[in-house]
Amino acid sequence: MSDLAWIDGALTAARPQAIGALLRYFRDLDLAEEAFQDACLRALKSWPENGPPRDAAAWLIMVGRNAAIDQVRRRSRQEALPDEATISDVDDVETPMAERLDGAHYRDDVLRLLFICCHPDLPATQQIALALRIVSGLTVPQIARAFVVSEAAMEQRITRAKGRIAKAHVPFEAPGPVERSERLGSVAAMVYLVFNEGYSAGAAEQDERAAFAVEAIRLARLLLRLYPAEPEIMGLLALMLLHQSRAATRFDAGGEMVLLDDQDRGRWDQRMISEGLALIDKAMRHRQRGPYQVKAAIAALHARAARPEDTDWAQIDALYAALERLEPSPIVTLNRAVAVSKTAGAAPALAMIEPLADRLDGYFNYFGLKGALLKQLDHPAEAREAFGRAIALANTPAQASHIRQHLDQLMQGAPATS
Amino acid sequence: MLYAFLCYNDEDAVFAWTQAEDAAVMAKLEAVQRPLAEAGRLGPTARLMATSAATTLRKDSDPPLVLDGPYAETKEQLLGFYLIDCADLEDALSVAQDLAKANPGGAYEVRPVRGFFPGAIATAKAKAAG
User: Which residues, 6+ apart, have CB-to-CB distance to B38 below 8 Å?
Assistant: First the structure.
């Protein structure tokens, strides 16, 4: 890696901590971002000459803070009134750097920065856009391309989201234990949203969005380093690593989605899988089951199966049953029905999903599974009807073409397979 | 004399490398290691998972305390190690400099080895883990 690439990596890695600390000083997101930007420019000049500092985040915080204080003073001279409130803790400028940058501050800074991105007033897409812009430092054009909107529209969306946050008055005092754990829960959910935005993208969008999944994994690593004893954060990171391990096999050369059963398991990323498994192992010791851990354990059972037929469906059924208790939803029951169909057969699985009809009326996977089960039970007419609904609801061409294969088999009277 | 090269770096940065960046660094390191391996000087090497995967057992209490995370919270983390046969410290530091050129940032702690026991892990297993 060239020096410049190395510096770029160090700046990105230091960004959440540095902006988080600058936000604590200035209590203004735009000012914190500007200060960080300023510090980065100085780093690009100074680091190649003087070598990188031992603690990049601390360097950027100090330099950014001084630059922004200068700027605020200059502005306030022009605008007459010195605004001491803007610089929240000017009095501790002289306290030793080490003290100011202790671990607890860092932790709360980064958590606060992530937390303001997941304000409940913000719709999910704005949360994701804001986190990618502020925490990860992706550029507006990058984010706009990924969301397939114009740069101006994305700029406006981010500005609007920032405005809402400013009005929401997120407290800057160190949070208490209960509040900290609530924040951690919201932040984990937002990180998972970022991941899914990348992971659920189709082949055509992969170039733009694949980075989101990688970024979410980076954020989860950061969270886990700050909160090393949180089993749900271990579960979240494990879950994302286990899904991401299949990234290279999820699309065929033509851009069609490849189903789990048909993926080339030899090309799954073993390094990510073993890290995911190690994290689940660690999390289990805490005996505090949570949704991310259970989802990760399900993903682990798929990762451990050398061939699709080696999958431990009974265990997956039991885990989905646990998930139904932790986080009841018709989608979870639908997924459980897949496991039930493998262990107990199509009839009990169908009985399990029929009560979901009202709630999953507009859901592709519901009709896809229903059709497949009816086909196995040899009810071709009803199966065709369900598949018809599924095709109408398909979100991607790959989903539709998968259903069409089923329909073709029905037309040919082929023996029911999956 | 055998030397251990303990590799420290900022894992936030290292684990944010893309696959291509990771592969590029590994290729450069491989170029430094190859002549050492051919000369029979390169011993076992290991790349460690992130410290978030680490668990620490404190044996200064009874029963020992099991804690999540690495032994020490530091700016740079122990991310791997090499064992290399070197003539002397001078030689070891020159190897470390070659490695540093291939992978800048962080630090190598170069420590003479007191006892070496190659162990019995089969090469196949070592490859699978890597």
Answer: none
CA distance between the termini of chain B: 27
For testing contact with chain A, the best of B68, B74, B79, B103 (most A CBs within 10 A):
B68
* Chain B residues with beta carbon closer than 8 angstroms to that of A279: 52-53
To which residue do tokens 């234990």 refer?
Answer: A177
- CA of B86 vs chain A CAs: smallest distance (Å): 27
Q: Cβ–Cβ of B17/A229 closer than 8 Å? A: no
The verdict on A52 touching B (C-beta cutoff 8 Å) is yes
Question: Distance (Å, rounded) from C-alpha A249 to C-alpha A271?
Answer: 15
Instruction: Give Cβ neighbours of residue A262 (< 8 Å, ≥ 6 apart).
Output: none
Domain locations in chain A as residue ranges: 16-99, 102-228, 229-289
The rounded Cα B64 to chain-centroid distance in angstroms is 27
| pTM, rounded to two decimals | 0.85
Structural domain that includes position B49: 2-129
Q: Does A219 touch chain B (CB under 8 A)?
A: no
Interface check for A299 against chain B (CB to CB < 8 A): the answer is no
Could you read off the pLDDT tens digit of each residue along chain A, which spans 418 residues? Answer: 456 777 888 898 889 999 999 998 888 888 999 999 999 999 999 988 887 787 888 999 999 999 888 887 887 776 654 455 554 444 444 344 444 455 667 788 888 888 888 887 788 888 888 888 999 888 898 888 878 889 999 999 999 988 888 887 777 777 788 888 888 998 999 899 889 888 877 777 777 778 889 889 999 998 998 889 999 999 999 999 999 999 999 888 887 778 898 999 999 999 999 999 999 999 999 999 999 999 999 999 999 999 999 999 999 999 999 999 999 999 999 999 999 999 999 999 999 999 999 999 999 999 999 999 999 999 999 999 999 999 999 877 778 888 998 899 888 865 545 4
CB-nearest to B13 from A13, A278, A285 is A13
The domain that holds B122 is classified in CATH as 3.30.70.1060
Q: Is the ipTM of this complex over 0.90?
A: no
